[in-house]
Amino acid sequence: MTGIVLAAIVLGAAPDVPADFAGDFQEAKKLLDQKEHQAAARAFQRLAGAAPNARGKAASISYAAICLGRLGQVDRAIEMARTIEAKPMSAYTQMEVLSDAKRHRELVAAFQQEDVATWPDEINYLGFLLRGRAGSAVGGKEAALKDFQRCADLAGSDVHVKLDALSHVAALRHELGDDARAMETHEKAMALFEANPRWKGNWLYPRALLGAARVLMGQGKYDEASAMLARFGDTSEKSKRNAWGFLVLEAYGDIHAAQGRKALALAKDEDAAAIDTHSSYLDRVNKKIAALKNTSQRTPP
Predict the structure, then answer these.
(1) Which value, in Å, is the radius of gyration of the alpha carbons in the chain?
(2) Of 5, 83, 113, 247, which has the fewest beta carbons less than 10 angstroms from its beta carbon?
(3) Domain 1-112 is in which class?
């Protein structure tokens, strides 16, 4: 999440950044992208001392803190983040570190009153996303819904984050029993995918399809749910024999089972079980297969 945003703050928004600093910053960023967190932390700490302006220093300290957090040095990372003079960037970095460490309750407790909307546009929507994720993780669905919606509203041209936030908004509305607005949100996401087709190759697309299909299934609109899943494409394709393909096949099976079409449900579930994916997924679908077979054996001809 941080890479594009902070690099833009340092390299795109400040014309007085010397070429050598910009180049070194990008090299440090490459180390982070390669998950060389120890080397990246050292590089960004050096850059913080050599930064030509306050924005460059803040971004360098932020990256260094995030790297330390990912090395498991969370408390040290938080202390480093607190040294950032720009308070919004300091708070954002602390939230990023706590989110990476899955310290969700701590994040919510520390920043639930934070006026994220007043942060600079480059980071305010990400602050709402981070707080929304933490709130959702600890069961604060109403507050998380508001944060995810603010994130989606403020994300601007960041299509990835906007789609991610919309997915969370739709899921929470569904969980809170507001299926009409959940589908409205899914439709907004689908419109974004149509306007930006390259994102259909991202994991956000099957997640959105599955979310929308689950809402339709709950409404008893099984044909519409199947049509939504069909947008995923041919599940027999090699590129789709993955966790997402598994979930789509399982959803097809659930639709057929709900319609009483047990043979079709069994075929989809068995196809899903043939995919090499998470053991928890396979355990779940194998239980469905066993139940369908048991029911079929008891059904008179």
Answers:
(1) 23
(2) 113
(3) mainly alpha
